[in-house]
Backbone:
């Protein structure tokens, strides 16, 4: 039985094959309508979500399966003090596959030890978010046509942004990727990503504060939200939240082929005036999220 806790649980070949399946589903969704008939997905969300939870649920419904679960810890027995282990033992009696989001880093991993069915990490604290990474990779492949030979700028909250950590891990296995890390000092990439991923794999990376200087060299700009819920104090959040606001003006020196990604939700970091720019890909990214999750559910259920 396979779980997906960390993006590195999947080989590059497996990721390629998931992307291929997602593209096949996009081309002919009817073919997949009955693939998970009588199968159930449980979504256990101990933290807020719109896209991740609903795209998981839509994915399972579009495969002909059904869904159950909860969307806040308050409505589960966690609010009575039940442990994650006991919750997962219980849910794995009812569902064939589980997608779980939790504010504690490592909670989905701990859950996978106790589960009788595949567990998918749908985001654990400020740590990892592998299915967002699959979404991002599918989007890059569809928008740019390749998963190698590009320069990507990550901008915003690189410290707490779990989507950034997972995507950097994933990219460390592709050829000729250059990374530009754009953030204020307080929100720099964590040491373990720097040492264990970037430096260990000899990935070419630079760090800076100002996005305008690096804009012309980017093939992809990956914007992120400042993760308010992970801050210890509100004043720090208020001081840092508007560090970056992408506007049409800031894009003046960018390539006409630039791809702008954002895992969403956005707060202020991308002005809505950018939404109609042909370089804005974040709503395509949202759509891709459902298709790659369909491919993932199919894969994990076929390996049980
Ligand atoms: C991201 C997350 O939850 O980490 N959202 C998502 O899943 N699409 C990014 C964020 O919340 O800022």
Residues:
């Amino acid at each position: 039985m396979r779980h997906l806790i960390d993006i590195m649980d999947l080989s590059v070949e497996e990721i390629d094959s998931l992307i291929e399946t997602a593209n096949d589903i996009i081309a002919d969704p009817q073919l997949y309508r009955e693939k998970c008939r009588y199968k159930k997905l449980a979504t256990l969300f101990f933290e807020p979500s719109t896209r991740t939870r609903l795209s998981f649920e839509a994915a399972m419904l579009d495969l002909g399966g059904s869904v159950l679960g909860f969307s806040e810890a308050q409505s589960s027995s966690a609010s009575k003090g039940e442990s994650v282990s006991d919750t997962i033992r219980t849910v794995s009696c009812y569902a064939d596959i589980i997608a779980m989001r939790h504010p504690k880093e490592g909670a989905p991993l701990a859950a996978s030890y106790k589960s009788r069915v595949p567990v998918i990490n749908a985001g654990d604290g400020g740590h990892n978010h592998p299915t967002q990474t699959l979404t991002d990779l599918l989007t890059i492949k569809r928008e740019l046509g390749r998963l190698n030979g590009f320069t990507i700028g990550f901008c915003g909250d690189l410290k707490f942004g779990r989507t950034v950590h997972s995507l950097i891990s994933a990219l460390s296995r592709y050829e000729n990727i250059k990374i530009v890390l754009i953030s204020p000092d307080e929100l720099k990439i964590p040491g373990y990503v720097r040492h264990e991923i970037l430096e260990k794999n000899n990935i070419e990376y630079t760090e800076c504060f100002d996005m305008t200087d690096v804009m012309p060299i980017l093939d992809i700009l990956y914007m992120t939200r400042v993760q308010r819920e992970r801050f210890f104090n509100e004043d720090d959040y208020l001081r840092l939240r508007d560090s970056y606001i992408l506007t049409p003006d800031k894009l003046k020196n960018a390539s006409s082929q630039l791809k702008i990604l954002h895992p969403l939700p956005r707060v202020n970091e991308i002005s809505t005036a950018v939404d109609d720019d042909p370089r804005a890909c974040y709503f395509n990214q949202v759509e891709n999220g459902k298709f790659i999750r369909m491919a993932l559910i199919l894969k994990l259920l076929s390996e049980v």
User: Anything to note?
Assistant: The chain has ten helices and nine strands. The mean pLDDT is 97.
